[in-house]
Each structure stands twice: as structure tokens, then as C-alpha cells.
Protein 1
Amino acid sequence: MKNRIYIFDTTLRDGEQSPGASMDENAKVQMALQLDRMGVDIIEAGFPIASQQEFEGVIRVAKIVQNSHVAGLARALNKDIERAAAALQHAKKPVLHTFLATSDIHLEYKLKMSRDQVIDTVGKAVSLAKSLLPRVEFSAEDATRSDRDFLAQVVETAIGAGADVINLPDTVGYTTPDEIREMFRYVIAQAKGAEDVIFSTHNHNDLGLAVANALAAIQGGARQVECTVNGIGERAGNTSLEEVVMAMNTRQDQFPYECGIVTTEIVPSSNLLSMITGLIVPFNKPIVGRNAFAHESGIHQHGMLANAKTYEIMTPASVGHKRTDLVLGKHSGRAGLAKRSSELGFELNEEEVGRLYERFIELADKKKEVYSDDLRMLIVAMYSKAFEVYQLEKLRTFGEDPTVAMVKLKHGDEVITETALGDGPVDAACVAIEKIVGHTGKLEQFNLRAATPGKDAFGEAHVTVRFENKVYRGNGASTDIVEAAIHAYLNAMNKHIAFLQSQEINGDS
Ligand SMILES: [Zn+2]
């Protein structure tokens, strides 16, 4: 029992705080379903007090998740805790996660509170949380830079007030493996009641030590690891779920613990996340990167042919690379399409299956064989469309130097057409879009890649666009790369417009 490690996934909360990684509600729901399928113990769905949209997003995730616990974050303030509890009451297994900083530097400059005030606030916040929901986690923000004895005192207070889980985060990514192992040992030994709660570790990767620190924390007594898919998160990111899980799996001799992750769902989770956020996984990223299992040197290839174990410490299949990819053809019916979508992690209602089917037939006409990745692109594109303020109806480009683009956009029931000149088709089409919507963005990053195999592959475009002082990521996919780029640009533009509209509604908060 004590050797069970709980996986607390915070992709939808901490991960979503990655610059530019914001996900809309539909994307969050799809990601939550995939996390549930992968077997994470807890899904942190968001920070309900942050905005109305965030509050509703947490409710939707809470309602749909079947197996995992669903957590929501709250500062140690009554209004935050009440708001989080209101969102989480829809979950089968809710967890209220409240936090307060414990390091002197945070007390003095950020909170302007004395140590006694912190103790008092933690006791009250945890008691309130516990009166509203059955399971409460308390995090001592910046724990690794806190005075150990004071930290133990705060932890004891939280346990006394009813906390079930105590998290000691390395908020700024500062600690080292030996230091964090000792911190957990010390606090667990000092704080009264420590044996009755689960200790949790939450690490940031500023020095590239997040995974190493998480593993060391486990050796120090932590039994819950907070992490994110692909390691996304604030700044340099968080502990990578896939790395920490596969390190434990591969080195059972060093880490004789169990966790409930279905490892073959790791790569599908990574793909889905990168598709919906536009944060592309580096080729050399452990476990999930395209090259993570590629053997290039002749000597390695020779060894691999003789026996894969010569150079392979885990198999690509064990983490879900190259899963048997049954091809769909024109004759696969709606039921087959719905079944395959659900295997890919998407739960679609009848109306959505109908819409998907139309797009699927269109694609199957262009492309004889439709792979799982093609299908995933279609679904993601369909989902993001549901949220689009402006939708691309038609795009035509002519000539070079300059290029003329004709763009037709749909806005509610209105269809608006514009033409513009530019340096090349993408530039010209962006200018035409800007004429229609009346906002101008600055394209800061532009990546194109083939998302599916073959010459008739789907091109996937990811862009970063700056509007005034805010930056948005946009994604688009199409068998035509210019069209993919324009979908991506329009997607970022729509996010900006949606943001401006939400500001108008919540202008007074
Ligand atoms: Zn964090």
C-alpha cells in the first residue's frame, strides 16, 4: 500500500500556464478524457476563481471524468475556496487544492504576513475546505526555500485542520535531489500526524532537475507526484509525467513502486496535447520525442538487429509508439468512425459524429487511406471550429511577387470577402483577414510540419501571433499547407477576439 505512487496530473492547470498554451474548454475536456484513460489518479482541472471561463471549464471536466479524482486550485482565501468547491461539487471524486507560501521571501515581499499569520490562515483555509469537500490537499508554496522547522509547523497545522495530502513544491525549480530527499524525510519525521497523510512533490524544471527531484522526493517519502504531459508548465516547465513514470517502470530495482498509468497511452496523450496547444515536442525529448527510439549509428543498428536489448532499455510499443494503425476507408461507416474516435480519446455525440462523417468522406475522396492521425487532425480541427468567431470559407491565391489572395470568411450568418496583396500567399491572405476583422497581428513564429505520412499528408501549422501586448498560439491543419497556415493564423486571431469579448463581459472584475 505504501509503495503505491499516485500520479497527480496538472497539465490542465500548471501546464496551461505555459506561455501561449491556453486551451479552450473543448480542448480541456478532450485532454481530460485522455488523462482519465491513461489512468492518472488526479486531474487538476484548473483554478476556478481565475475567470468565468475557467470556472465553467472545471465544471465540464468534473462532470465528464469517470475514474480519476478531479482537483481545483484555490488560494488560501474564503472566496477562492468557495468558488473551487462550487465547481468541484460536480465531480465524482473531488479534491480541493489550496495553497499558501511558506518561505520568508514570499512572506515578506508577496504576502506581507508574519509566520503566525500564515499558520493561522492555513488552519482556517484547510478547515473551510474540509467542511466543503471530503478531500483536501494543502501546498506550502516555495517549500524548498522555506525554513524547515517553520515548514514542519505549517504542515502540522494543515494536517490538524484536516488535510489529506500535503504538497511540498519546488515552486522556483531551485532544489537538488539530495536536498529535496532530506526535506521530505525531515518534515515527515517532525510533523505530528504525518503518517496519516500522503506527501506530494511538485517540481519545476528551471535547472533541468524536475524529474530527478521528483524521484528523490519519492525516496524521501513522497507518495504523490505532480506532473504534466510533455513536461509543460510555467517557465521551463514541470516534471514530465512520461519521464517520471517510465523511470520508475524501467528501474524497478531503484524505484520499487507501483503506479496506475497505462503506459501505452503515453504517446497518444503527448500527441493530443501537442496538437491542441501547438507546443511541439522536441525530436530528442525522452520517451515521446520522434527520435527517442531512433538508432542512427551503424554499430547500434547492428546490435539492435542481433538483440534489441543491446541498445534499448524499454520498447517503443510499451509507451504507445506506432500502435497498430488500422486504416479507415470510404466504406467505414459512422459506427466504425465513432468507435475509432473513441479509441483515440474523443467522446463524440451523435451530431458530432455526423459532422465528422461528412468531413471524413471528403478526406477519403482525396486520400484513399485515412490513418488514425488524419482522423485526430479532423476532430481537432472540427472542435476548434466550434469556437471560431470567424471561419474560413474559401481561400484562393494567384501569382507571385506580389501575390493576390482572396479570402472569404464566415461570421455568424454573414459572409465577407476581401482581397489583398502580399509577399507570397500566406502574407497576402493574412492581410486580407486583417482587413475583414479589423485587428492586426504580428506573426512571431511559424512552424509547418507533416502531421501524417505520405505525399498527400496533412500539413499542420502552428503560429505564434502577437496582438498588442498579448501572444496567442494558433493551430491549423489541411492537405494544403497555405490553407493550414491561414487556419492557424485565423485560430490565433479568433482567440484574441474571444479574449477581448470576455474582457467586455467581465470588465468590472
Ligand atoms: Zn507549479
Protein 2
Amino acid sequence: MEARLINKELIEHFRALAAERQAPERLRHTLGVARMAVALARRHGLDEAAAEVAALAHDMMKGMPPAEQIAAARAQGLLLWPEDEAMPQVLHGRLAAAWLRREYADLPAEIAAAVENHTLGRPGMGALEMLIYSADLTEEGRNFFGLDILRHKLYDDLVEGTRACMQATTESLRARGGCVHPLTLAAYEDLQRRLGL
Ligand SMILES: [Fe+2]
Ligand SMILES: [Fe+2]
């Protein structure tokens, strides 16, 4: 199937969907991710329209109650790791990606991949996957120690910036006593390998 050209109407369609389905706080976050994603895409010569659509879609299923997310993920065969059920907050990316692949099958495949992997990452992440993962953490509404450094790194080098974002996320998770998903550990090791670290 030939991939659909992403025009202004399609971007506005996803923006309207986000506005309709998301509470004000989440919508602010989504629009912040979209702005950051477009800025990073421009900086690194990537497809800005694809970045914007992926950002607008990335949290579309996050408002679903966790029990429903688990049930929907089970029904669609999206519970992939033993850890998934204990961490239902990781499922909304996969659910949104499955929705995109179903309802917008002619979108470029990297958009659904970026949505799918925005919470955990995965080994072998493509540019748009790294970009959405990182924009999610560094959008204008975020506020934490070290955020400026992460933004600088992302503007400088998408791979190193994403590695640094992943390190920040796992360190803060561990500091709060949480455990890090095996997919994130594998993604982090892969980025380190790519950087020769
Ligand atoms: Fe998310
Ligand atoms: Fe998000």
C-alpha cells in the first residue's frame, strides 16, 4: 500500500481528536510534545508532518482506565512481557499504535512504531521513535532538574539525546523504587552500543 501523504487537514484531524478525547492537562502535554517533536524534526532534517501526527496520537489511549487497557491489550494480543500486566501504564502506546494501524492503515509505518514505543523504547529504534520518546519527556510543560541539558543534547544529537533521556527516566524510576522494564534496558544498551559507549 502506498503511504498516505500527510497534509494539513490530516494534522488538524488528529489535533481535533486529541482535543475531543483528552482532558485539558493531557491535551496541554500532547500539544507540547507536538511542538517539541516538530522542532526536533526540523533540527535533524526529519519529516515534520509525520512527527506532528505521531505526537498528536501518542497518548490517545492514555485516558482509558488501566483495567480496560489490560483487557483491550489482552484481547488484541498486546500483552508481550510478563512485566506488562504489573505495569499497565506501558500499554497505552501499543493500544494507540494498534488503533492507528487499524483506522489509518495508509499512514507511514514509522508513525505507529513511534507511538508504540514512546513509553519504553526498544532496541533498534528508528529516528522518529527516538524523537517521540524524547519529545514526550522534554516538552515545554515538563519541569525537572537536568531538563535543559537533555534538550541541548537532543538538539545536538538525537541518539545521544535519547540515550540521556532514557538514563534520566530509568534513574528517576529506580530512585522512586520502581523497576525498569526489560525492553527499556535493552533499548538503552542498544543506544550505548550505537554510540560506542
Ligand atoms: Fe504516553
Ligand atoms: Fe505523553
